[in-house]
Amino acid sequence: MSHPTPMQAAYTYPLGLFAGYGVELEYMIVDRQTLDVRPVADRLFEAASGAPVCDFEPDGPEGVVSWSNELALHVVEIKSTRPVPSLGSLAALFQDHVARINAVLGPMGCRLMPTGMHPWMDPDREMRLWPHENTEVYRAYDRIFGCRGHGWANLQSTHINLPFANDAEFGRLHAAIRAVLPLIPALAASSPAVDGRFSSLADHRMEVYRNNSKRVPLMAGLVIPEPVYTRSGYESEIMGRLYAQLEPLDPAGVLRHEFANARGCIARFDRGAIEIRVIDIQECPAADIAVVRLVCEVVRALAEGRWSSSDEQGLLPSELLHAVLLDTIERAEDAVVTDAAVLEAFGMPRAPIRAGEIWWTLAERVCADDAGVAELLAAGTLSSRIRRAAGDDAGPDELRPVYRELCDCLDEGRLFRAG
Questions:
Q1: What is the mean pLDDT of residues 141-161?
Q2: Structural domains for the chain
Q3: Would residue 362 be called left, alpha or beta, if left means φ above 0 and alpha means ψ between -120 and 50 degrees?
Q4: Which of 133, 143, 1 is nearest to 72 (CA)?
């Protein structure tokens, strides 16, 4: 789970709608033999850069990708250092940096593991906070919430940063993203296992994510943000109320910053962007970028009013969208969307339809020429493929070879059992 400090803000967007993209991919560091988590991110950075820094931009002609630490010491993030004008080259660049990191981790007996959650990590026993720069922020989270649960220690995601240039663009973008958020687990769920067994949920990462800050309910809210479409409204109705609720627990104001907002998308006015946070990490960068492209193209179509107006999208209640989100968290592509207002926002008939079929229809409209998107949709969510591979009654012994194969997929840049 990403909790960047102001010093770590990676993007500055003097850009308009869809003029640039920022992408962040989070991976677990695990033991090469046992696949248990290994809290050695600081050793990775020191081996690569000479010091346990928070951010590192490796040498290379592209100058586009860098590495960052996260709250947990067994997690590393690979990110676009600055906005990129298109997504076309990112999969290959990210794959190259996966190889670079694994080359550094190899002598430590470690490697990177994909998916949204480690399937048998014991967070109470194995969680280690990042102990170097910016520890004041991490200690504040730990003091207030206790970071030894799955919702803090064991979740990896893909983040998308989409720019806006002014209040009008912010309003259109926020309305469009709110509408898309509840459908994303039906495309990107990859976290079906926890505590050594399969969960009853397809996207267990999102379940622990939405519940990890219950001590301050306004931190995550309903995950779907409130229908607010101006900066002044956002800062008063969302951030102002959150800061007031947080103040008794954080009187020094350590967390009084935009990153304290843990909704499924958050406004980063310091970057001029909205950050989408509900995407589970996939098995390799090619799969992640396919997800990112489809999500971004659907958001673009909504923001352009292709199927419904921004005003119509903006009227969708958070409670309604939250109910759809809970269904997709549980059943991923097999969730059935029945609400007419949600379906109409996407130009869909008002009849009940599987969420997976919604994504197929949207992809045919906005990404018909993208073979990577088509292959991903044909395969089904990674969560579903992991269940099929291991069997419903799988325990750690059955999960281990499946997750070893997923690590190999990350190494090799290929989809997991997509045939």
A1: 96
A2: 6-409 (3.30.590.20)
A3: alpha
A4: 1
